[in-house]
Amino acid sequence: MKKMKRIVLTVTILALFITGCATENNNEIVVVSREEGSGTRGAFIELFGIEEKDSNGNKVDKTTDEATVVNSTSVVMTTVAGNKNSIGYISLGSLNDTVKAVKVDGVEPTVENIKNNTYKVFRPFIIATKENPGELTQDFISFILSSDGQKVVEENSYIAASEKGPYSSTKPSGKIVIAGSSSVTPLMEKLKEAYLKVNTNAEIEIQASDSTTGMKLAMEGTCDIGMASRELKESELKKLKPTVIAMDGLVVIVNKENPVSNLTSDQIKGIFKGEITSWNEVAK
Hints:
This protein is 36% helix and 25% strand. It has helices spanning 2-24, 39-47, 73-81, 111-115, 135-145, 147-155, 185-198, 211-220, 234-237, 265-273; strands at residues 30-34, 51-53, 59-61, 68-70, 86-91, 100-101, 103-104, 122-129, 159-160, 174-181, 202-209, 225-228, 241-254, 262-263.
C-alpha cells in the first residue's frame, strides 16, 4: 500500500511538472479588444487597417473572433495585467504602471511624439450636443476650450485642441448630464472637477458607456453632452454638433512580463486579425 502511494504521488508530481512546463512554453497570443460601439475600437481598427471594405464597399471589422471582448478601458488593463500572453489597446491618458506600452514601428507612445508626428496612432476626443445647447452646457464647453480647461487636458497626458483665452462667465446654475465613451470619461471627470471649483452653482453627472451610446443619448436628448473617442458618423452629424476637446494617443499594451517591447504596424494588424497567433512569431 505504501509503495502504491509512492507511485501515485510520483505520477502526480510528474503530471504537475509536465503541466507547468506546458503552461510555461505556451506562447499563444491572447487578444483583448473593446466591444462593438466603442470609439476606441473604431479608431484602432481604422488606424491599423483591421477594418476592411468588402466587395460591396461596406466597412467590415476583421478583429479575430477569438478575441476576449471587454467593455471599458479599465477592464482592458486589468485583463492584460492578469495574463502574461495578452495584448490590448487603450488611451494614452489612461496608461499606468500595471501594464507595458510597446513601441509602434520603433516609436514610443508619448505626447511629445504625437506632437512631432513621429507617433502616428492617435485620435480625437469629441463632445457633441444638439444645435442650441442650454446655458450651463455651453458654459461648461467654453470652460473646456478655454486655456484653463486645456491646461487640465495637458496635465492629464492628452494634447490640447484649443488655443482660446482664459475662462470667464456669469456662472450659470443647474444640472447637466454627460454620457458616452469610457475613454473620454477619465478626462471629463478631471474637467468636471476643475469646472465645479470655479462654478459652484453647477451640478454635473457623468455616465460612462461607449461612443455610440453617447451619441445616441445626445441625439435623443437624454443627455446634454455626448462623449466620443472617434469621429462622428454621417448619421450623427445630421443631428449633432461636434467639438474636439483633445487629441489622444492609442497605446498597444502587453503584460509587464512580456519581453516584447516593439511591434510593427503590420504585426499589430496580423495579431488582431488572428493571422499571428504566437509570441514566438514576433519575438526578437
